[in-house]
Amino acid sequence: MAQTPITTLFLDIGGVLLTNGWDTELRKKTAAHFNLDYEEIYHRHHVTYDTYEEGKMSLDEYLWQIIFYQKRDFTPDDVKKYILEEAKPHQDMIDLVTRLKAVYGLRVAVVSNEGREVAEDRIERFNLKNFVDFFIVSAFVHFRKPDLDIYRLAIDVAQVKPQQVAYIEDRPLLCEVASRLGINSVLNRNATETREKLAKFGLVL
């Protein structure tokens, strides 16, 4: 068990609570669905996406730069609808977090890299406000993981010590970065394994 009791959970959204919002797989599916050249999208995306995810560009502006810089036979709204409706919940993880919050009185925060429109839709669509106390999302705060400042901001807002936090994340690099601040990082592969890892910090169900 951890020497310092865990009082707070930090959660990623994509890969933890929900499917990823706009990853390589979804970009490929979107390109195929709309008969687009994926390689062209790939290169334009990598030049542009950080700016969008940091909240410095709207989704319409981002889509213009990667897709609608030339005339298409479909609209930006068609693409946005397709992207947003591809999201699916990891219900077993949502159930796990909800139970832990109820049993241990934990505060729950999202610490996530997402564009504003995608994040707002997912928060609303999947009722994340029902169990998340606050949202530190890159587009809202203008920092992106792995920038340590996004974790520092989450710690400051939660008013906790890093050792009081368990951070559930699906990417090993981001777990390593958060651990540098003393945050207890839990690499999520599936709900069963994550539940076992959290038990080692005293969060036993």
From TrEMBL:
Presence of keyword Hydrolase? yes
* Signal peptide span: none
SUPFAM superfamilies recorded: HAD-like
UniProt keyword annotation of Cell division present: no
What the entry lists under Pfam families is as follows:
HAD_2
Alphabetical keyword list: Hydrolase
Q: Where are the transmembrane segments?
A: none
InterPro entries in the record, alphabetically? Answer: HAD-like_sf (IPR036412), HAD-SF_hydro_IA (IPR006439), HAD_2 (IPR041492), HAD_sf (IPR023214), PGP-like_dom2 (IPR023198)
Highest taxon of the lineage:
Bacteria
GO MF:
hydrolase activity
This protein is called what? Putative hydrolase of the HAD superfamily
